[in-house]
Amino acid sequence: MEDANIVALYWQRDQGAITASDEKYGTLCHSLSFNILQIHEDAEECVNDTWHKAWDTMPPQKPNSLRAYFCRIVRNLSIDRWRARYSQKRGEGMGSLVLELEECVPAVPSAEEQWETEEIGAAVERWLRQQRDQDRRLFVGRYFYGATVRDLAAATGGSPNGTTQRLRRLRNSLRRVLEQEGVTL
């Protein structure tokens, strides 16, 4: 089913929207959530919560890309669940990714810094647009989708060590750009 038809089902409050969403995007959402949480049951709950959140937000939302919309929802729900589980200790999965990015992207501790957060996001987006397609896919695959270095290496035909080095260079490049734009690290 086409995305526009699925969105129309949500707007019509037709329960078939959830079934269609799960059929088309369930595997992708589960994979993304599992990459963060590393527990299938938790990932499945986050996917189900994604359909519930989509039901609650459409209408008024009318996303142009359901894939991006669902991925953003499931990723945020999964990170929230991960934070709740590992608030006092380091964990596997997303924890190591957060630590990798911590050195080049500052943490935003409060809601008062929303504007700064948006500016950092815009700077990261500008930086990503300047990267080669393969580097952009590598960075987004690792830090948005939570893919493992081994999986990324296999997908790009490289070695895990080479992929790790490439990710380090990308993080260093991002850090330099953010520093040039006045973002305090």
UniProtKB/TrEMBL annotation:
A GO biological-process term: DNA-templated transcription initiation
GO molecular function, one term: sigma factor activity
Family matches, as InterPro entries: RNA_pol_sigma-70-like, RNA_pol_sigma-70_dom, RNA_pol_sigma70_r2, RNA_pol_sigma_r2, RNA_pol_sigma_r3/r4-like, WH-like_DNA-bd_sf
Entry's family note: Belongs to the sigma-70 factor family. ECF subfamily.
Location of the RNA polymerase sigma-70 region domain: 23-85
The protein's name: Sigma-70 region 2
Source organism: Pseudoflavonifractor capillosus ATCC 29799
UniProtKB keywords: DNA-binding, Sigma factor, Transcription, Transcription regulation
